[in-house]
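Friendly challenge for the regulars: who can give me the structure tokens for this chain first? No prize, just bragging rights.
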Amino acid sequence: MATPARRRSAATRRSTRPKRRPRGKVARRRAREGKAFAALLIGAFVIAAVSAYPVTSTIVIVLAATAALTIYLARTGRLRLLAGLADAAGTGPSQDFTHTIAAYQALSYTEFEHAMADLARRDPAVRKTDVSGGKNDRGLDVLVHLHSGDRYLLQCKRWKGRVGSEEVMKINGTYRDIHNCVGAAIITTSAFTADAERTNAMLPKALRLIDGRGLARWASGGRSPWA
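First reply, four minutes later:
Bragging rights claimed.
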């Protein structure tokens, strides 16, 4: 049986072991990318040398080469881009909203309504919000008062199951005539059924249907429902 000292020694060796170099397809792909980039760079400077506008051509080529080099280094793992740039360059995974959605799922129904009110108040266009969810809320969970004088209704669904078309029809029938709002959004931590989306598309003025991923984007600084 290995002693604690030996186990620590073995763990240290494993942790300090150098990383393996890329092999097989990955190595060949990186080699091809490196050769292609070098050939492109050489060709570009040759074009600049014989161009009628060598200075302008050189500036454009340098900027393009810098962008291409950045993308190449990111793809080969030698450079880490910001998440947004990495996604645009195709070098990083798509943004993961799982953590944000799970955090909202962990709230109670009332806490979720207050969280949506707090999120709405972050928008400079919002003057104040009122939380009025309950059994007899007639589809109103959060009432958003805009500086323009308009009112906007939020219906909050901290659900795991999909939201159906009956919820869409319910909100469509109350947000204007009962709550005097100019628009409405249904916000859920899950998703909407295909029937709900079809029903919403048939309305004269569609509601904003915000699913879990849409909510995470809004919470991360994305567009507000009334924008």
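The radius of gyration is 27 Å. DSSP finds nine helices and five strands in the chain. Your move, everyone else.
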